[in-house]
Amino acid sequence: MAERLQKVMAQAGVASRRASEKMITEGQVTVNGQVIRELGTKVEPTDHIEVNGTPIDSKEKLVYFLLDKPRGVVTTNSDDKGRQTVMDIVDEPERVYPVGRLDYDTTGALLLTNDGDLANKLMHPKYRIDKVYVAKVKGIPTNEELEKLRHGVTVKTVQNGRHYTFNAAPAHAEILSTDKKKHTAIVKLTIHEGKYHQVKEMLKSVGHEVIKLTRERYGMLDLTGLTPGEYRPLRHEEVQALKSGRQFRKSAGRW
């Protein structure tokens, strides 16, 4: 049965569907020797597909890993600046890629897989999987500021020289500890979105710059037993929970 090219690429573990679409439009993909740039192109199981000259294997074993991402590592498959990537850490025979991203200076829970269907599902806006962050911030947030985060804030920022505004959904926000001498606080924030620099921008919008940030939990996956730079395969029940959607928050509104 014919399938869309980007879906076949995702299922083969090349990249997520969105990233596969970008590869197609950039002319990195050939089908039976012909460069394909049109999205929506369908291919047959017998077609020969190559990405940058490398044939893809549509029968690749599906694998799932949880990484405790260290600080100073980029969440990409390669980096044109020569920085260490998460792919330099996860040394496995299967070709995996990160689900979503964590900033260069953000640490914590990162899922990597070659299951394109699951990755696409987890990153789709309609599926609202909880992501728990712990941030060290300048200043001590007031109850009023925390309430703003709990009701949702409007973030205004600049990305690549362009002004950008988005409405962040309501988050669970609480203070874990404070240091009155240093005038800092440790804040736990639970969100289900994944916009660029979202946690940093949300806290900045209520007057608190993030000094240090880690993602402690992704759905039910936490960092128990891992130290920065270590990773482990997901257990069968963890994979099934992610696939079944039991980790998704489908109701909107205030926490």
The CATH superfamily of the largest domain is Alpha-L RNA-binding motif
Largest sheet: 9 strands, mixed
What would the CATH topology of the largest domain be?
Alpha-Beta Plaits
CATH class of the largest domain: Alpha Beta
Helix content: 10-25%
> What is the helix tally?
7
Measured between the Cα atoms of the first and last residue, the distance is 44 Å
Number of strands: 17
Q: Strand pairing plus helix content: what structural class?
A: alpha+beta
Shape: elongated
Q: From N to C, what is the helix and strand string?
A: EHHEEEEEEHEEHEHEEEEHEEEH
Rounded mean pLDDT is 89
By CATH, the architecture of the largest domain is named 2-Layer Sandwich
Pfam families: PseudoU_synth_2, S4
Protein name: Pseudouridine synthase
Family: Belongs to the pseudouridine synthase RsuA family.
Organism: Weissella paramesenteroides ATCC 33313
